[in-house]
Amino acid sequence: MAVLVQIRNAHKSYGDQVLLDDAEATLIDDVKVGFVGRNGAGKSTLLRVLLGEEELDSGEITLHPNLQIGYLRQHNPFQPGESALDFFMRDSGQPDWKCGEVAGEFELKGAYLEGPVAELSGGWQTRVKLAALLLHDPNLLLLDEPTNFLDLRTQILLEHFLRNFRKACLIVSHDREFLKATCTQTLDITRGKLTLFPGKIEAFLKFQEERRQHDERVNASVMAKQKQLKRFIDKNRANAGTASQARSKQKQLDRLRTTEIAADEATAHIRAPIVEPRQGPAARCRGLKIGYPDLVVAEQIDLEIEHGERAAIVGDNGQGKTTLLRTLVHSLDTLAGEVRWGHKCEIGTYAQHVYTSLPEDQTVLEYLEYQAQPGTTNQDILAQAGALLFRDAHVKKKIKVLSGGERARLCLAGLLLGTYNILVLDEPGNHLDVETVEALANALLKYKGTVLFTSHDRHFMRRVTSSVIEVRDGRVRNYIGDYDDYLHYVNKEIDDGERQRHALSPQAAKAAPKPKKSDHRSNERDHRKIRKEIANIERKIAQLDDQKRELNSQLLQTTDPDEALRLHNELTEVTKELEQAEERWCKLTE
User: Fold this and answer.
1) Looking at the structure, do residues 250 and 318 belong to the same domain, yes or no?
2) DSSP 3-state assignment of 14?
3) Same domain, 212 and 170
């Protein structure tokens, strides 16, 4: 396999902040790598260095002479009035049939392909930019948080495309579901070091935790040995008969070293408002029509939301999820019908327009003191601020100097200091890192009130959702099933659409094999051959199972970090081979 990018001895810093410290990594063709690390660790900086937009302080990056990078940019590349098809042809120089073929991979057809691209929603415009990117035939895709603001359907379409894309990818994402579905290797950046792990994100996280536990056990053993040697030395060095033994033990003690274990970084621990659980309907919608004076988004809406539900509002971008939420909390007038909330419902709202209109001249602490309920102690306010990572001098910062992520956390902190028994959250995970989103999910699971929310994070949705409300094609309805059922439904729709599109394509018609006549004897030979292969695979699976158990046993017993890494890599390969054998066995038995 060709080496596309090689990073050696890379150093990069901004002032006192070190992002790359003697970092090394190698990217090869036909491998999709998930790039992970805390916010601010240096992921986007490294992408800019690869694109030639920034330079390293020292070190070198070697690029393959035939490297063709494709990078999904955030700016708007469209000209006034042009259609998506016009844009594809202008941007790539490809003929209309080729542009239409690639556009079909992202369900761009009809008005979405031939109408003005500027009138499409943000999610559909992202589909256009992705398709345009692929028309340049890159052999390395750089995707920086590609799932941000993408609706579920577009995320799944992108996953399907990337699984069939036979070139290399480097994907920065906090979305573990997306990385799990698309990437076979994981690149981690922590404290300036790059670590390329030959496995998927879940295996990497498990290995990371196992390695940490292993290092802690080894350190405990080393420290116990150090104490034992020190006691012997202190007892015997003054005695002429045992002084030589004490000197020998001192040399042993000097050679013992503990492994440095990085301290945990600050992580949010969120507590939701403590409220009394209630029963019965929290909200009723009857004959509701939502939208704007010149645009009806959805109508004939009849909904009932029970107290204690955690209702996820789902649907493609542009269908009206945010419009529905704004109408429910009365920040947008109804066009017809009514929304009724139950008695003593206190509603707390988190939305983008909220944290972009914070009082600029207040400090973090002043804002939280204003938001807190009467009687809240200063200690409670500081504890909630600290839970959302505003500690020490940070509580004295003016709001006008806060980043988007900090403002988002501040809004959440203010909301959670209240006594709201209804929380309405529009994309609460945007601008929050994966650890803080996980903490928010844990808090909402313990919350006894009612939650209505939207999110593009499937892991968060799966953990939190207890009921699903779908907004689609001008209608709003309670979806019968849980979030996993809804995911299955969307995936099936996409799969059916892809099968239909491929069946109708001229290439598929040409490639389709013509039916052949077969006799009984040829069928019997085929069956014998299959039965023989099944028996061979079953023996192979048994051998691989034994190897896997033995490697697991050795990995648990070893105390040598290098040996542990070697065993883990070998275990990864055996596991991969075992999965392939089992998959082949399933196909043959079918």
Assistant:
1) no
2) strand
3) no
HSE at residue 469, side-chain half, CA atoms within 13 A, is 25
**What does each C-alpha distance from 583 to 537, 580, 589, 590 come to in angstroms?**
10, 5, 10, 11
| Higher-confidence position of 515 and 221 | 221
Instruction: Write the pLDDT tens digit of every residue in 132-191.
Output: 988 888 999 998 888 876 788 888 888 888 888 888 999 988 888 889 999 999 999 988
- Tell whether 35 is covered by a domain: yes
Residue 534 DSSP SS3:
helix
What is the predicted pLDDT for the residue at 556? 65
- Strand order through the sheet with 336-341: 295-306, 281-292, 336-341
Give the whole-angstrom CA distance, residue 323 versus residue 346.
20
Residue identified by tokens 């419902």 is: 345
314 shares its domain with 193: no
Q: Cβ atoms within 10 A of the Cβ of 577, count?
A: 15
User: Has residue 273 been placed in a domain?
Assistant: no
Lowest mean pLDDT among 366-375, 399-408, 437-446, 547-556: 547-556
Q: How many residues does the chain have?
A: 590
pLDDT per residue over 460-488, tens digit each?
A: 999 999 999 999 989 999 888 889 989 88
Handedness of CA 446, 452, 457, 463 (dihedral sign): positive
368 within 8 A of 381, measured Cβ to Cβ: yes
The answer on 230 and 114 residing in a single domain is no
| Domain count within the chain | 4
Q: What is the DSSP letter of 47?
A: H
Q: What are phi and psi of 389, to 5 degrees?
A: 70, 25
209 and 192 in a single domain? The answer is no
Whether 156 and 106 share a structural domain: yes
Q: Do 321 and 437 fall into the same domain?
A: yes
Does residue 49 fall inside a structural domain? yes
The pLDDT tens digits of the residues spanning 30-79 come to 899 999 887 778 888 899 899 888 899 999 999 999 999 988 776 778 88
Give the domain-ending residue among 186, 204, 222: 204
Helix (H) or strand (E) holding 462: helix 458-464
Q: Name the strand (E) or helix (H) holding 270.
A: none
Structure tokens at 446: 């313990």
Please list the alpha-helical segments (H only) found in 187-280. 201-236, 243-255
Give the pLDDT score at 90: 93
Q: Are residues 97 and 236 in the same domain?
A: no
State which H helix or E strand residue 382 sits in: helix 378-387
Containing domain of residue 223, as a range?
205-255
Strands of the sheet with 168-172, listed across from one edge:
69-71, 140-144, 168-172, 32-36, 185-190, 193-197
440 and 412 Cβ atoms separated by less than 8 Å: yes
Any domain includes 28: yes
- Helices 483-504/152-164 angle, 10° precision: 50
**CA 13 vs CA 43, 47, 52, 189, 486: distances in Å:** 13, 15, 16, 14, 45
Residue type, 415: L
Q: CATH number of the domain at 74, please.
A: 3.40.50.300
Q: 392 by DSSP, 3-state: which?
A: helix
The closest of 418, 422, 424 to 371, measured between CA atoms, is 418
CB contact at 8 A, 171 and 34: yes
